[in-house]
Specification:
Layout: H1 10-14, H2 22-32, H3 54-64, H4 74-77, H5 80-92, H6 107-121, H7 136-147, E1 154-157, H8 163-171, H9 191-199, E2 210-214, H10 225-237, E3 241-244
Helix pairs in contact: 3-5, 7-8
Length: about 240
């Protein structure tokens, strides 16, 4: 017996994921008809012929095919430091790329992340407190799944946030018991716009714990310190729990 729309999770059917919406679907149709399409719905620089980082690709190629390291001519193909890095990774993880790893990531990689955080931010970091995920979306999903307990909880996110975050809020496993309000501010900062957003949630939604989700960018663009402080103060005044990604 086949599946129909009636068999699907209604939260999934009603979710809106702009970067995969009707405009993108229409663009794909035109592309199949032979039209040249430049997709601007996601950050995809290599599709626009930006060259990838050669270092990462070269290290991965050696990890995928470590027998190359035994060949004398490999020294003329790859820089010396790159060969040393590949050998060090294989020493720490001799199973290679085809084996399962710990679900939270390889220990030596998590240690490297902890060392980087300590060096960059000057704060303590412990590898056992670090979880590696296959992309930011999976990490956001895990955080939301752990924080949202029921219909009294809500998530406050920026209007111009990554669409996958909104999409996952609607589709996550416990979505049927979670009320989510997203009255957000476009490009606004300070306590007044945040307070207005809390006041406008309406209808008693998310009257219990509320998570204030302030998303930064992996390239370093993020709200400044004052904006974060304002967010925390508003959350404290509203007796909510502030979370920052």
């Amino acid at each position: 017996m086949g599946l129909s729309r009636d068999d699907l999770n209604p939260k999934l059917l009603h979710a809106e994921y702009a970067v995969r919406g009707p405009i993108v679907q229409r663009a794909q149709e035109l592309e199949e008809q032979g039209r040249e399409i430049i997709y601007c719905n996601i950050g995809n620089p290599q599709a626009l012929q930006q060259r990838p980082l050669s270092y990462l690709r070269q290290v991965l190629s050696l990890l995928e095919y470590p027998e190359l390291l035994q060949r004398s001519e490999v020294r003329s193909w790859f820089p010396r430091d790159l060969l040393e890095r590949a050998r060090e990774i294989l020493r720490l993880h001799p199973h290679g790329t085809g084996a399962y790893t710990q679900s939270i990531g390889l220990p030596f990689v998590r240690q490297a992340v902890a060392d980087f955080i300590r060096k960059r931010d000057g704060i303590p970091a412990e590898k056992n407190h670090i979880i590696l995920t296959d992309g930011a979306s999976k990490g956001a999903q895990s955080v939301l799944l752990g924080l949202l307990r029921g219909p009294e909880d809500g998530v406050m996110i920026r209007f111009r946030n990554t669409p996958c975050t909104v999409h996952r809020l609607h589709c996550m496993e416990d979505a049927r018991s979670v009320t989510i309000w997203m009255r957000m501010i476009v490009g606004a900062s300070g306590k007044k716009p945040l307070s207005r957003a809390f006041a406008m949630r309406g209808n008693g939604d998310s009257s219990g714990r509320t998570r204030c989700h302030q998303s930064g960018k992996p390239d370093g663009r993020r709200p400044d310190g004052k904006t974060h402080q304002d967010g925390h103060r508003v959350c404290q005044a509203e007796r909510t729990c502030s979370h920052r990604r």
